[in-house]
Write a structure and sequence with these properties.
Blueprint lengths: L5 E4 H14 L5 E5 L8 H15 L3 E7 L14 H4 L11 H14 L2 E5 L18 E4 L2 E5 L8 E2 L1 E6 L1 H17 L2 H4 L5 E4 L4 E6 L7 H12 L3 E6 L5 H12 L3 E6 L9 H12 L9 E2 L6 E2 L3 E4 L2 E5 L5 H5 L4 E6 L2 H28 L1
Parallel strand pairs: 2-3, 3-4, 7-14, 11-12, 12-13
Antiparallel strand pairs: 1-8, 2-5, 5-6, 6-8, 9-10, 10-17, 11-15, 15-16, 16-17
Helix pairs in contact: 1-2, 2-4
């Protein structure tokens, strides 16, 4: 008996959404959620074109993106219109106006969208209260993982499976969040534990500061490990998580932690260098053995695997986002098939990238 869960990489996920939308009609439903939204990227532009066409044919299309797309840009000195005021239009400066125009085109065609967590006042912290949730529902097929709808070249992974009950639950959550414009309001500030099957639960952090059912269960999974831990993160997971991982090494657990180097994080690179340097003196040297080399693509997958089970979702398993009240989603499975297939998928992706990096070094 194998797993009913299937795993796809970033581009495979986008292509499955596009293919479904291209054929969708009045009897179909699609709900897609992500934090980052960059419709200027060719594949995201194609996805939006197909979602808009599907809505025009009568399909129920719902899209959730976060206000951070309209409060800041990749340029550290440039903020978006929602950082200054509540006004947003298709005439806003690029890329903000283009993003808004893409959303409005979907709405005009008959779809629905929401910009979650709009700032309550000007000049507020654009990172506080974000919705970092990433999912998709295609009729009764559910997708959970770390993929944003953005332009960045990343190593990521999504899991999907057929499940009418869970699809209904997540689709209803998406529709309700269009109305409330806030996952925290939709969930009334309560983190969620939704049973998927006998081995698997869906976890949702409502986005309340210093509250995270996902981080709690991730740390329990680390503490339960007696043999091995395989983990991927977009940056070094220090703090409480680093301490729990270091304790696992000290009790004899084989810990393989893969994460992106500080310079992969653009304008935030200096902070990551300082943070990692500090954590080297606080955790364990064994945690730094698998830091990935410089170069694309950046590791973005949020994977935690032990002999006890596995977790996959949008959460980085660190306290920083929890302190700022970030809404998150994750799947936690005790199935050994799920854990094995998940690790094989992302570790295979990492190996291929490392081969390409080594090949470029050899040629140079």
């Amino acid at each position: 008996m194998g797993s009913r869960y299937r795993f796809t990489d970033r581009l495979g996920y986008f292509q499955e959404l596009i293919d479904f939308a291209r054929e969708a009609g009045p009897d179909d439903r699609m709900a897609v959620a992500a934090m980052s939204f960059h419709p200027q990227d060719l594949i995201i532009k194609e996805l939006m074109r197909e979602l808009t066409s599907a809505a025009g044919r009568g399909a129920r299309v719902t899209l959730l993106v976060d206000a951070i797309n309209f409060t800041r840009s990749s340029n550290p000195s440039r903020f978006g219109p929602l950082w200054y005021s509540a006004r947003l239009s298709t005439h806003s400066p690029k890329p903000f106006g283009d993003c808004f125009a893409s959303l409005e085109a979907l709405k005009t065609a008959g779809g629905t969208y929401v910009i979650t967590n709009r700032p309550a006042r000007p000049f507020s912290n654009p990172y506080a209260g974000r919705s970092h949730i990433k999912f998709a529902v295609l009729n009764n097929r559910v997708y959970i993982g770390g993929n944003n709808l953005d332009k960045y070249n990343t190593m990521d992974v999504m899991t999907s499976w057929e499940d009418r009950v869970t699809a209904d639950y997540i689709h209803n959550f998406a529709v309700d969040t269009v109305r409330t414009a806030s996952p925290r309001t939709t969930l009334q500030g309560q983190d969620v534990r939704h049973k998927v099957d006998d081995d698997t639960v869906l976890l949702i952090d409502a986005g309340v500061s210093r509250q995270s059912i996902i981080l709690d269960e991730a740390l329990e999974l680390i503490d339960e490990a007696q043999e091995r831990i395989f983990m991927t993160c977009q940056y070094f997971p220090g703090g409480r998580t680093g301490q729990h991982l270091a304790a696992a090494i000290r009790r004899g657990v084989n810990v393989a932690l893969y994460y992106s180097p500080p310079n992969a994080h653009g304008m935030h690179a200096p902070g990551h260098y300082i943070y990692e340097l500090r954590e080297r003196g606080r955790t364990h040297a064994g945690l730094f053995k698998h830091r990935l080399p410089i170069g694309d693509p950046k590791l973005h997958a949020k994977v935690l695997v032990t002999e006890q089970g596995a977790m996959l979702g949008s959460h980085n398993y660190v306290v920083q986002g929890v302190q700022m009240g970030t809404a998150e989603i994750a799947l936690h499975s005790r199935s050994r098939y799920f854990a094995k297939d998940l690790e094989q998928k992302i570790s295979g992706t990492i190996r291929e990238v490392l081969k390409r990096v080594d090949s470029r070094r050899y040629q140079s």
